[in-house]
Amino acid sequence: MKYYVAHFRIEGTADIDVCRDIVAALAAEAGFEAFEETADGTDGYVQQDHIDRQRLDALIDEFPVEGAVVSYTLEDADYRNWNETWENAGYDPIAVGDRCLIHDPQHPTDARVKAAHPDFLDIVIEARQAFGTGTHETTRMMVAKLLEMDLQGRRVLDCGCGTGILGIAASKLGADEVVGYDIDEWSVNNARHNAQLNNVTNMHVWEGNSHVLSHVSGVFDVVVANINRNVLLDDMHRMKEVMAHGARLIMSGFYVADGQMLAQRAGELGLSLVDTKRMNDWCLMVFDA
């Protein structure tokens, strides 16, 4: 696969961290898969045959933050250098409440912590160009919601699994089987790798979009989807088709302002909204079938 890297430059008086998050969300709608912060903005990576330049330009031209000006330049990405840099950098451990710690192999959890807290959820995620380490609000909200649930014996579907973090969390919380899928080959390989790091053996990961569900037998008790708004709108009907009676759908990856249209779409499919959470401008919604 050949990739482009877009160097997004953020100028103006607006909060640069907020703008980075919004750039990533908007660029994802134009095909971008992964992002890396820079001094004056962020770098985004996209497969060369997946980029929608017209949509990207329109989204950047209409950037929704007052006081911010965003521009970008595009060039070929060197996969080998990018991958090596990403993997070597690592990230600081991330706590989700007082029950879960997400970390990379370079920052193992202290054995004394594990001994003192036997129910503590310890998740190792080595991010190899895939979304989902817990640094983003949406991932933390999704993990926090899973921590609240009784997943013993449940069958869980992870749509757009990225690093596999949600499926891995579900497995460690007692899920009987986890199925994940992602359109990106890197993410599929990364999710499988992270499952091995966490000794998770009941998680199966497919490469492709929601159409892969036609090849998956049976239905699911819990469906999790941390994807951008447009993909959720397009794919929600396929998620609903594989939900068991009384199953639960947990969605994030979108802004609070987008919640109404997603709730409307869910209602059209016969799903009932039972919970909503927000962290900064990001939203999580829970629906029951």
Walk me through the topology:
Elements: E1 3-12, H1 16-28, E2 34-38, E3 41-47, H2 53-61, E4 68-77, H3 79-89, E5 94-96, E6 100-103, H4 111-116, E7 121-124, H5 137-148, E8 155-159, H6 165-172, E9 177-182, H7 185-197, E10 203-207, E11 220-226, H8 229-241, E12 243-255, H9 259-268, E13 272-279, E14 282-288
Parallel strand pairs: 6-7, 8-9, 8-11, 9-10, 11-12
Antiparallel strand pairs: 1-3, 1-4, 2-3, 5-6, 12-14, 13-14
N-to-C span: 39 Å
Shape, principal axes of CA atoms = globular
Strand content: 25-35%
Q: What is the total number of structural domains?
A: 2
Give a description of the structure.
By secondary structure, the protein is α/β, with parallel strands linked by helices. The chain has two domains: about 5-85, Alpha-Beta Plaits, CATH 3.30.70; about 130-289, Vaccinia Virus protein VP39 (Rossmann fold, 3-Layer(aba) Sandwich). The protein contains nine helices and 14 strands. It has helices spanning about 15-30, 55-60, 80-90, 110-115, 135-150, 165-170, 185-195, 230-240, 260-270; strands at about 5-10, 35-40, 40-45, 70-75, 95, 100-105, 120-125, 155-160, 175-180, 205, 220-225, 245-255, 270-280, 280-289. The strands form three sheets. A seven-stranded mixed beta sheet has the order 10-9-8-11-12-14-13, sandwiched between helices. It has a four-stranded antiparallel beta sheet with strand order 2-3-1-4. Strands 5-6-7 form a three-stranded mixed beta sheet, covered by helices on one side. It starts with a strand and ends with a strand. The model has no long low-confidence stretch (mean pLDDT about 85).
